[in-house]
Amino acid sequence: MNSAALASQLLIGLSRGMLYFVVAAGLTLVFGVLRVINFAHGSLYMLGAFFSFTFATVLAQGQAGFWLALLLAPLAVALISLLIERGLLRFIYQREHLMQMLLTYSLVLIFGDLVKLIWGSQYQSLSLPGILSGSFTLGGVAIPWYNLFLLVMGPLVALGLWLFLDRTRLGKICRATATDREMVDILGVNSTWVFAAVFALGGWLAGLGGALMAPVVNISLGMDANIIIYAFLIVVVGGLGNIWGALISSLIIGVGEAMGALFMPDWAIVLPYVITGILLILRPSGLLKSVW
Predict the structure, then answer these.
(1) Which of 216, 207, 201, 149 is closest to 171 using CA atoms?
(2) Each residue of 140-166: b (16+ CB within 10 Å) or e?
(3) Which of 46, 49, 51 has the alpha carbon at shortest distance from 111?
(4) pLDDT tier at 94 (50, 70, 90 boundaries)?
(5) pLDDT at 61 exceeding the cut of 70
(6) What is the mean pLDDT of residues 240-268?
(7) Which of 124, 144, 121, 122 is nearest to 132 (CA)?
């Protein structure tokens, strides 16, 4: 073990944490505003990965494929999310959480079969564009360009969400709707479409996470299972609705997972759960307070 190997593994953990954050940010937004426990969020992430593969290989070739996929895949998932919210979820907002969990879990099964019908059960892969391929050396540490790209994307998404929720009129309406929907309706705001927009934005983030993850994993059935567990862990540990809390907890879990693979490979799979348990014992309400 040397410092270069340690730094390289730390970089992997940080970049993986950023990917987790992009997906979890959509879940914490939906959970914080709509109060919906959306098990299908991982399926939307999986759809984002498969859509990115299709857009990159069918609609474009070469370096343009990845960028086209990064643009179109999240939009496609956002559209599907909007249809789900308008067609299904809006009828159960006032129902108990068990009904929400059953409905969203049924969507997990439906999307799994649809993916198998459309793309098959074989693994797919997506190549990086030349500008993001390879690596450069800094201080004796090889830094892949794509990892650096992810380290930039994560904070940009966090900053964008914070600016949207805290500095825009629509963001303030979203926060007000989460606190008192009836009052927002009385003031003349159509809270129904606020909920639809928030769920679509959450789906867009899930699709973006899938598109960003596609070049570094095998795109396959079942890739939604692990990510949804991690997303819920991040949301709970970070504090419900708290974007910065989700960012911090994503980095902790990502780095913990990477360091576990380096120092305790036999225990690496359970280390994120151990870290989550310790953090919740120390801070039961989350690292940062719930904002709604």
Answers:
(1) 201
(2) ebebbbbbbbbeebbeebbeebeebbe
(3) 46
(4) confident
(5) no
(6) 87
(7) 144
In this prediction, what percent of the chain has a pLDDT beyond 70? Answer: 97
Lookup result for tokens 């079942």: 222
- In DSSP notation, the chain reads --HHHHHHHHHHHHHHHHHHHHHHHHHHHHHHHH----TTHHHHHHHHHHHHHHIIIII--THHHHHHHHHHHHHHHHHHHHHHHHHTGGGSTTS-HHHHHHHHHHHHHHHHHHHHHHH-SS-B--PPPGGGSSEEEETTEEEEHHHHHHHHHHHHHHHHHHHHHHHSHHHHHHHHHHH-HHHHHHTT--HHHHHHHHHHHHHHHHHHHHHHHGGGS-B-TTHHHHHHHHHHHHHHHH-TT-HHHHHHHHHHHHHHHHHHHHH-GGGTTTHHHHHHHHHHHH-TT-SS----
Report whether 206 contacts 41 (CB < 8 A).
yes
Give me the pLDDT at residue 184, please.
82
**What phi-psi label fits residue 129: left (phi over 0), alpha (psi between -120 and 50 degrees) or beta?**
beta
Mean pLDDT of the chain: 88
Residue with tokens 């606190």: 179
CA separation for the pair 122, 212 (Å, rounded): 20
pLDDT on residue 137 = 82
pLDDT, tens digit, 9 for 90 and up, residues 175-194:
788 777 788 888 888 888 88
Per-residue pLDDT, averaged over 49-70, amounts to: 85
Neighbour tally for 32: CB within 10 Å: 24
Q: What is the mean pLDDT of residues 135-142?
A: 79
CA gap 245, 67 in Å, rounded: 29
Q: What angle do CA 280, 264, 22 make, to 5 degrees?
A: 50
